[in-house]
Amino acid sequence: MSEVAVPKKQMNALILSWVIALMATLSALFIGEVLGKTPCLLCWYQRIAMFPLALILGVASYTGDLAGRKYALPLIIIGTLIAAWHSLVFAGIVPAEAQPCSQAGPSCSGEGQILFGILPLPYLSLLTFLTLLGLLTIPFKKG
């Protein structure tokens, strides 16, 4: 049996994607469990998309299986869409009637969405998902 050589550029993109997904997962857990910031509804949905990516991309990186990106991309696209909506809510572009967070729970656009007083979590999430999307599509384009 002969092994198929995995293109280095694609393998590096896969490993970097795993590292980013793992850091995002650990960061979300740190923010919630250590800093005590309760996630809003949209944050929960983004976590649902991000947390499995750390496992999927980790296994794909460990085994050198580039097909793992096929399983990751749907979660990344869903997470990107939710993060984009959350960013619009945070920016005040989405009217209050269309916001999914209630007054009783954590706000989707309130102070709880800013880390260390300067970093808006919805924007960081959107940047993370967009970075993953780029890493798992651009190096894989047929050229």
From TrEMBL:
Gene Ontology MF term list: protein-disulfide reductase activity
Record field: transmembrane: 12-32, 44-64, 71-94, 114-138
Primary location recorded for the protein, binned into one broad class: membrane
InterPro entries found in the cross-reference section: DiS_bond_form_DsbB/BdbC (IPR003752), Disulphide_bond_form_BdbC (IPR012187), DsbB-like_sf (IPR023380)
Pfam families membership: DsbB
Superkingdom of origin organism: Bacteria
Its membrane topology: Multi-pass membrane protein
UniProt entry tagged with the keyword Transmembrane: yes
Annotated keywords: Chaperone, Disulfide bond, Electron transport, Membrane, Oxidoreductase, Redox-active center, Transmembrane, Transmembrane helix, Transport
Any single Gene Ontology cellular-component annotation: membrane
Gene Ontology terms: biological process: protein folding
Keyword Transport part of the UniProt annotation: yes
Location(s) in or outside the cell: Membrane
Family indicated by similarity: Belongs to the DsbB family. BdbC subfamily.
Name under which the protein is recorded: Putative disulfide formation protein
The organism of origin for this protein: Candidatus Terasakiella magnetica
